[in-house]
Every structure is written in structure tokens, then in C-alpha cells.
Amino acid sequence: MGSESVNQAQQAAEQAARTSYGRLVALLAALTGDLALAEDCLAGAFEQALLSWPDGGVPTNPEGWLLTVARNRQRDIWKSSAHRTSDPLELATDQGRDAVSPLDDVDPDAIGDKRLELLFVCAHPAIDPGIRTPLMLQTVLGFHATRIAAAYAVPAAGMAQRLVRAKRRIKNTRIPIAVPDQHDMAGRLATVLEAVYGCYAISWSTQDGLADEARHLAVTLAALLPKEPETWGLAALITLSLARAAGRSETFVPLDEQDVRGWDSELIAEGEAQLRRSSMASAPGRFQLEAAIQAVHCARARTDWPALHTLYSALLKLAPSLGAHVALAAVTAHTSSPETGLEILNTLSQADRFQPFHATRADLLARIGRDKEAAIAFETAAALTDDESLRAYLLRRAAQHT
Where is this region: Disordered (predicted)? Predict the structure, then answer.
């Protein structure tokens, strides 16, 4: 096999993993509720693809090929005596009966999108609330436990263990993988919205295409639950954020220095329309407020810092978070003074591994002439990001103050 065919196979597999991982896992887990088994079988299918595709060529429908191979692996495991004896009798009997035809009605050439079903499954009350969103990020949206742990600023090993326990919980309690009724759906919605936003936030820096997937899920959720204001708020938030991504280049440029002419005016208009639809609520929710913040940025000829200060203050009262505190400190530096912004940062705890904290602190220190401290903070921020363009920018700023 030539290097070109190997590269083509690898690129096709990577593309399938980015765009179809969650759909495939959801389909494979639909009948058994065994997420770990679905993931293992799919991983085996990807391994087989990397061995087969360089010689045989990339199939016309890589996702369908992967589903078929993973489904066959799953069937073999169901039939194996080792698997039957390792599960409770009732479960083994059920799986043995279905083993001859599980997923046979699924057309590999027309794979549907069952990710929303699996998102709501992961938000089931039987799952520990603290692991629901990370579980969705890994199982449905395909993020590795290491990236999820970094987003939550916790050790990767601990996050991986909690995810394994959550999947075992779904299997052992026989939680059905199906769309819940409207009442249960509304009760689980907040966690699902958080996961979709997490997908967008984590993928923003890597520009790996998952941000577009997050937008698709957000818009789909809004259409599914049109009377829920926060679904439209999330759709608006992601849409308006992606409108600004249209002007991104390989070189990092701070938001307030970006050329607005490079932004996507059609996405801005769409996001603003979604934001208006979200205003049906008497009091705005978290995602509506964050969408309004993005709308201020998108509408600017000059940034309206007082408006941003009002919105972030409201956001902190409604949904306090480390990110919102850091953002308010940055905005306060413009509405009041860099020193006042630093005072806000100095009150924050558990921010040692939170990259935006160090980047914001570095910028404020530089603005008041504390160069040595600023350089150290810029270097710390650079070490905490996976975004190569952002790391280069932060290291340049560090060198300017050394």
C-alpha cells in the first residue's frame, strides 16, 4: 500500500469520527443501553477501517461501512458464551433473542441522527448530575476524556473513572435509549443545553468542525421545543459566535481588534432573529443573556462596554461561573479601571488551571505596567491552551514584557 492511500484512509476515518461518532454510538446502543459496548465495537470498526481502507479503498459511505462492521462485532459479542454468562440472566436472554436481527432495519446508507435521543438519556435523573454533561460530551459528541477534564479543570484520570461509572449505571439500570415524553424532556433540557454549549465551547479553539455540529443540534432542539426560550437563546448564542468565526485567520486577533467586515452578516441576521424568538420569557435565562452579549459584539462599530457590564452582571446573578467572573473583570477594566478588574480576579478561587483567568490577568497587569508579573501570567496562559495561534499570540505578549 502506498503512503497516499494510507493518508486517504486516515483522513476519511478522522472525518467520520468528527462528523458521525455520536450518531453511530447512539444507533449501536439503542437496543441494549450498553454505551461502553457500543463504543468498544465502534473503536474496533475504526481500527479495521485503518487496516482495510488503504488496500481496498475508502468506501463510498464510510459511516455506513463503520456501522455495519461495528454492528457485526456487537452481534458476535452478544452471541458469545462469555458475554451471556457475564450479564444478568434476563439481560443475556433478551440480547440472545435479539442477536439475530439487532439494527437490521437500519439502512447503513441513510444513517439517521439519534444523538438528541442519547443526549436526553444521559440527562436521566438516575445519572449523577455532576457527570451528565461530561457524559454527553464524550458519548454523544465524541470528545476524549482528557479534553473534557481540561475544560472542567480536573484530573483526566478522575474524569475517565467517573465516565466509566456513569455508563455502567445506564446499562445496569436499563435506562431506555429513546426520546422521553414532553414532561421528562423539559426536566432534562437544561443539562442537554449545557452539553451542546460545551461542545461548541471546547471545539471553538480547535476549529475541528464540531462547532458547526453544536449549532446544528442547538437549532434542532429549538425546532423540537419551540416554546422553550432557552433553546432559542442557545441557538442564537452559537450562531452569533460562529458569525464572528468567519473572519478568523491563522493568527490570533483579540476580539476588540477584529475587522467586523470579515464577519458573516447572514449568520448575524439569523442569530438576531433567534434571539428575538427567545424573548418570549418574562425574565431572560443564561443562554439568552450570553446570546445578547454576543449580539452586542456583533452589532458594534465600537464595543458598548457599559452594555456588556450590565449583561455580565445579570448573568452572574442568574448563572454564576468562573468564566463569567473573568469576563466581568475584563469588561470592568474598560468601564472602570484595570486595577478594579484585577481586584475582581483576585477574589476568584480554583482558577489555577483556567486559561482565560491567566490571559485576562496578564493583559490587565500589562496595562498598568507590572511587566514582570504580566510576562509570567502570559506564559502560564500559553501553557494552558491547545490553540496554536492563541499560544503564539500569548508568548509574543510575554516576550514584549520580559
Answer: 81-102
Q: Do residues 256 and 291 make contact, with C-beta atoms less than 8 angstroms apart?
A: no
pLDDT at residue 94 in the model = 44
Enumerate residues 6+ apart whose C-beta is below 8 A from 388. Answer: none
> Residue 361 and residue 327: Cα distance in Å, rounded?
11
Asked if 166 and 115 touch (Cβ cutoff 8 Å), the reply is no
* Identity of residue 161: Q
CATH 1.25.40 fits 312-402, yes or no: yes
284 vs 276: CA distance, rounded Å: 11
Say if residues 21 and 70 touch (Cβ distance below 8 Å).
no
Name all contacts of 71-77 with Cβ < 8 Å and 24+ positions apart: 71/28, 71/41, 71/102, 71/103, 71/106, 73/41, 73/44, 73/45, 74/28, 74/32, 74/37, 74/38, 74/41, 74/102, 74/103, 75/99, 75/102, 77/37, 77/41
Q: What is the mean pLDDT of the chain?
A: 83
Three-state SS string over 146-212 comes to HHHHHHHCCCHHHHHHHHHHHHHHHHHCCCCCCCCCHHHHHHHHHHHHHHHHHHHHHHHCCCCCHHH
Q: Is pLDDT above 50 for 91?
A: no
Amino acid 100: pLDDT: 37
Q: pLDDT band at residue 248, thresholds of 50, 70 and 90?
A: low
Query: Which contacts (CB < 8 Å, 24+ apart) does range 143-150 have?
Result: 143/199, 143/202, 147/202, 148/202, 150/353, 150/386
Task: Answer for the pair 170, 178: CB distance below 8 angstroms, yes or no.
Answer: no
Ramachandran sector of residue 175 (left: φ over 0; alpha: ψ -120 to 50; beta: rest): beta
Single-letter residue type at 28: L
Contact between 357 and 348 (Cβ < 8 Å):
yes
Backbone angles phi, psi at 5, to 5 degrees: -65, -35
pTM, whole model, 2 decimals? Answer: 0.72
Res 391 pLDDT > 70: yes
Q: Up-side HSE of residue 39: CA atoms within 13 Å toward CB?
A: 16
DSSP string, 38-63: HHHHHHHHHHHHHHHHHHH---SSHH
For residues 125, 131, 294, 305, the Cα torsion angle rounded to the nearest 10 degrees is 110
Comparing CA positions, the residue from 191, 294, 179 lying closest to residue 233 is: 294
Indicate the angle between helix axes 129-139 and 115-122, nearest 10 degrees. 160
